[in-house]
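Follow-up to my post from last week.
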Amino acid sequence: MTNNKKIKVGILGASGYTGSDLVRLLINHPNVDIKLLTAERKAGQTMADIFPHFIGHDLPILNKIGEIDWATVEVDVIFCALPHATSQEIIKGIFEQTSGKKQIKVIDLSADFRLRDPDTYKRWYGNDHTAIALQPRAIYGLTEYYRESVKSADLVACPGCYPTAILLALKPLLKQDLIKSEDIIIDAKSGVTGAGRSLRESNLFTEVSEAMNPYGVGHHRHMPEIEQELSVSAESAVTMSFTPHLVPMNRGELITAYVKLEENKTIEDLRKGLAVTCDKEHFMTLLKEDQMPATRMVRGSNNFVVNVYKDRIKGRAIVIAAIDNLVKGSSGQAIQNMNVMMGLDEECGLKQVALFP
Amino acid sequence: MTNNKKIKVGILGASGYTGSDLVRLLINHPNVDIKLLTAERKAGQTMADIFPHFIGHDLPILNKIGEIDWATVEVDVIFCALPHATSQEIIKGIFEQTSGKKQIKVIDLSADFRLRDPDTYKRWYGNDHTAIALQPRAIYGLTEYYRESVKSADLVACPGCYPTAILLALKPLLKQDLIKSEDIIIDAKSGVTGAGRSLRESNLFTEVSEAMNPYGVGHHRHMPEIEQELSVSAESAVTMSFTPHLVPMNRGELITAYVKLEENKTIEDLRKGLAVTCDKEHFMTLLKEDQMPATRMVRGSNNFVVNVYKDRIKGRAIVIAAIDNLVKGSSGQAIQNMNVMMGLDEECGLKQVALFP
Amino acid sequence: MTNNKKIKVGILGASGYTGSDLVRLLINHPNVDIKLLTAERKAGQTMADIFPHFIGHDLPILNKIGEIDWATVEVDVIFCALPHATSQEIIKGIFEQTSGKKQIKVIDLSADFRLRDPDTYKRWYGNDHTAIALQPRAIYGLTEYYRESVKSADLVACPGCYPTAILLALKPLLKQDLIKSEDIIIDAKSGVTGAGRSLRESNLFTEVSEAMNPYGVGHHRHMPEIEQELSVSAESAVTMSFTPHLVPMNRGELITAYVKLEENKTIEDLRKGLAVTCDKEHFMTLLKEDQMPATRMVRGSNNFVVNVYKDRIKGRAIVIAAIDNLVKGSSGQAIQNMNVMMGLDEECGLKQVALFP
Amino acid sequence: MTNNKKIKVGILGASGYTGSDLVRLLINHPNVDIKLLTAERKAGQTMADIFPHFIGHDLPILNKIGEIDWATVEVDVIFCALPHATSQEIIKGIFEQTSGKKQIKVIDLSADFRLRDPDTYKRWYGNDHTAIALQPRAIYGLTEYYRESVKSADLVACPGCYPTAILLALKPLLKQDLIKSEDIIIDAKSGVTGAGRSLRESNLFTEVSEAMNPYGVGHHRHMPEIEQELSVSAESAVTMSFTPHLVPMNRGELITAYVKLEENKTIEDLRKGLAVTCDKEHFMTLLKEDQMPATRMVRGSNNFVVNVYKDRIKGRAIVIAAIDNLVKGSSGQAIQNMNVMMGLDEECGLKQVALFP
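User reply:
Got it. Predicted complex:
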């Protein structure tokens, strides 16, 4: 790629928080031109009409997906930030219309292509998958673990926010046989953007502020995805406990994982195991022994921070990690995948320092 | 006690949040007169000078403890809301000065008389206990479990806020052999008042707001107290895992406990076991099956809400409970104990509905 | 009224925040029995289903208004917490159905009977008033100024939250000719409960949190009501400037009023003028000279706090006041009116101390 | 300046929020190398020790100012983020030690060089100014109005946060004779970072959260600075009313200004007047007629947004503006000045989109 040829990107579903964070990050990405934005109900408006913090930025008018001719539209990469179940149809259509004519790469931020088993998909999401043929083509976009496959992929399924935090924390430990694959208990806490911009009573300021609420206990849809990927690292089927909680803050996700050490392993072994992975990754940091991961360390940035502690129960350890759910847990990770797919420096456009306070 | 003879109470350490919540609740207690308030550094000021929400209420001027003659002061009950380690000396002095002259009852809200074993106290709090002789006299003031002893006590040690929530949730289950005493993992979340009014960087709005922080991982001082009391119910030594987190809210505490079912026990058994206890208690509520405990249900009130859920890991259950850390977790529970000690209706002065939103 | 005969009350529209705060306060009112609760879309449910903080309280099941036979229902007082424009029809129906059969007193918390001039009503609310005949009967329920009329009223129109704070602050000064009636500028700040529980994007946590938003600049519906009542005190037509702002908090309203001193009047005169009124009122407090009104002083309580300061511009003063918008600004004031209408002590059931922190 | 010669900058007082936001922005500034960081009490530590969100960034160890040899240290520009009254001594020392040896440019973020009149300085800040000789050399760094002087300055005094928002909003209107210079009333609202990281009770989460507090009514130290600069634009002495309020949010400042139109001027004239200025400036945006400035539009960015509305009082207008107090109100503006002083594009390193939500 030469300097004067920028990547042309489109964002489908730009009126949600994930879509808008893609725009925020891509506006200043040195190798990208945002060429296409869609939002069905807000078509005809500008991003600044919907998100006034974009005032002053020159962006395409919002369009409807149905009005795009995929065979001719000048776009190299599509970010698909549409609701679950909607994505699969749209993406199938894009590939069909462009087949043999041009190459478009699709980065999907929904759950539609994350699960390898269509039955599991149906059981957790309630509908038949309508693009099963595309599934083998989809690469699970946890960049740190599927980088090589992502490089040549034309369809990447970005992980959910909880899976991202959990997998980055536990995969290094499982792969190195440092912790057991059984009895993994994860207590997760997320900011309210995790629930999107939908008009639900439970998302009102008055309901969330000054409050701490668990939700989806025992049946959150991120579970099968987490188990699928932990099982890969453990090389055996993992069933884990996962309980998310809603925190009165906008951004940020903290996971506290209670795990069992493998025989003869120590906390120091776990630290070393995490260090091996963190040291070679751009966006993963193992904190010092006395530091605790906190969401304010990563607000607005693509970073992941982690640490591990001795539990009071013998043979157990506590692994704590934090990410920004909208960045590393969603839009930032999607751009990281784009960088890999397009042969760019993986950090390109993702060097923002966290905004604190 | 006749109707026209109110209980005269004193509050030592009235300038902290625990002290001020005692005042808030006792002002409207129908059987109480607040006769004495102390605050060393603020002596000479009024409560309204320090806490302007008391403006318009007629309260004693703040005094210094050293200026009180315990043998003659007209007080029936002392609430001691002083820092840990300070309480023991003061309470020893009160009992010495009043011995043989008058009877004063002391309700201590600090940690000084919670631990039965002086060695455990020293190990966790770092100093020798200076009133060991008083320890056997101190009743652990978890009213629901020590009501009979509290009735005749003249020294009650109120539980910490985390222990209150955890013990009310798990003691019924352990006592009825519904859960195992091993491998109990507790993930706790607390509002910022849990840290008091002290000037620490970690308590600043800018550090806490829009953030989620774990703290005291593996070594929080409430641990030995929780284990002591869980062991009583389990009739064996319990060692548990406990990880607290700081949430950007003022009041409220949520605990998520990951426990193992005893053989052949089901979630329905656990529900029934909790119901047995909750049904006979004023301040304990088992929620309906599909409801989730949340701190907003109990803000400003003396209530405890709990529920139990099936875990995805076979043989495990998730128990979730919420209290207001300043009320049921501290000042409200102290008044509940006073009611029991003075032969009043246990709910007296504690009927406030939670403030929501 | 004898002790053993409690006032039977009904609350129409109990599923909103105003309705639920009426319930919170009336549950512990010593002279009240809640006999009737309505909520159209939630009929058949319990208050605890909708507002889980009421769990454990014995309350009537939610009903539909259309199913109530007003001629026979055993209710002495109706609180009407329905949306603007709905109230007038319902209240007209109540009076028609009970006329000549029984006496029911109605306390309306909507805007429907606040404006004396039907044309003004239509201009600001957009619809014709459908119960004009009832308007002369309606007493404006700013208790401190219409107490005598409220005593014998059977229809009381409770002021809006902003008008309450503004009128209590400025009426004493206008009536005593201490400030000029021209060029009154009011900058108001309100918590989010002021917007109710409606599902609007602007009420989402993510939109309000960490943000400060003005709204309704130059055209808020509370304006004509404020001007109507300021004009009464000024004995001349008042036109004022009023700009509300939304603050990321649940409860509380702060108004900052920029006013001109009358000739030869001083700040000290204004203090004295406010003191005259505050000293004789239960719920009004003039702060000390160096104290500043703040919403945390009144959270959850029926109190109003005020102070006055010298402005840097010669001849100008700054008057600052705070209330809890849901209590003194709505439900608490409604109960205060009920107390007056039913011959009870005005403070009855309204002695809650503010909840701080 | 060639590409391979970056500007070497030092930041004095890097452990405050202003200092840390300078670091956040300068890390990614393409023409800057951070060469020197100081923090007296934290000397020897890293930025990441104090502000863990800097983990992973390579930055100089914190130093003490006294240990720097200004004559030899390799620094082109010094940002001075020290407390008021401290700055003047340090800056005097820097210029004395470098005089005749090398040229260092100083950008001061304190109040020390903002006021032109030493008597005014003394009256508002309480101490004699100790570097009066430097004052004529100091350029007031409101870039949009002093750009030409800033270009050649070696000492720039950056405006306070409130002055920045107020002056950018009102100077265009005063200069173009669109509003009167008398009776300007400003109601300001600021996030908590405006108070810095100091350990004061009023900055605790528990005191600020769920609260709205006015402060410094009638005597805030930004007043003389605002009046000094408004007077320049009005070409006559301006005395204005200014009342700041503390809002429970981290970043952001909203000012609501109540002003009088000049004879025969309309709101449309004011809009046009603001448009003239905004259109030619990088960081100033006049919103559409129906949009309202809100702090979330500028969180973390160097932008200023403004709008103007008709007041209900005849002849008056309401001007509302918002900035991020730490960026455009402090660190961002300082970097904007550096860009001008060093001949860079004024937007360089300041293109961050606001972080929303």
